[in-house]
Amino acid sequence: xxxxxxxxxxxxxxxxxxxxxxxxxxxxxxxxxxxxxxxxxxxxxxxxxxxxxxxxxxxxxxxxxxxxxxxxxxxxxxxxxxxxxxxxxxxxxxxxxxxxxxxxxxxxxxxxxxxxxxxxxxxxxxxxxxxxxxxxxxxxxxxxxxxxxxxxxxxxxxxxxxxxxxxxxxxxxxxxxxxxxxxxxxxxxxxxxxxxxxxxxxxxxxxxxxxxxxxxxxxxxxxxxxxxxxxxxxxxxxxxxxxxxxxxxxxxxxxxxxxxxxxxxxxxxxxxxxxxxxxxxxxxxxxxxxxxxxxxxxxxxxxxxxxxxxxxxxxxxxxxxxxxxxxxxxxxxx
Length: 334
Prior knowledge:
This protein is an alpha/beta fold. The chain is 46% helix and 15% strand. Strands 1-2-3-4-5-6-7-9 form an 8-stranded parallel beta barrel, surrounded by 7 helices. It is globular, with a radius of gyration of 19 Å.
């Protein structure tokens, strides 16, 4: 069985609050644990009115504290925004609080626009360039301290928190292969380089202490509902959100609408359709057939499902249906 996991952006619905969004995230994580999802990741984004997970490590603690067995982590921490030592301390603390349940996914982008990136860390471009060195430094902090080591992550040292590299281009695929780390590709919003990145990662992989064989996780959008029409309607929320972001009008997650073509131009629609190419929208049977074809073609080791919904009840139902699809696919494969 290919494990299914969840990437949560902690969506703040229009006319709602971050408090509600974070409560909804915990509710979804608790259901996901019962439904057999492998892990529950939160994403670092800044200056985004529709996303409540900017303080990612804090939200991870919130989710891990309210669950018991599901792995919880970052998808991801944008390392150029932080010093490796601080992240080692934060995730070392999380690992001390929730042993054997914490994942650390790392990204190279700032997770925001350039103006906000400068507000986060003034040398953002330079730190992105030194990303490989920062990953090595961070990984070193999770090893047992050496005699005379002057700078230590406490908590952190000796924890060996699992590190993942995330990416939407070939750079992180190459780095993950070289360092022997698991690799997650952001095909749910950046599909263009997926095939080549996965091929490079698998063909160049070098075993490490953390990982003996390449391990690929692929991100996909899933909007499942009891009918195809309802699923397509719920999907219009993320379509509108993409359009608003590209118009420079990022806001809270808008409610679904009946006709997306009345909201976006044909050119905008084409761009959104391309970015959201790997979106599986429909009832259980429709989603099952589409996911089966995707898995058969790409042969991922794990799928990371995401869905930027306005309606939390609809989001929870979507992930419930997806877990049932996973179980049917596993039964067929047995």
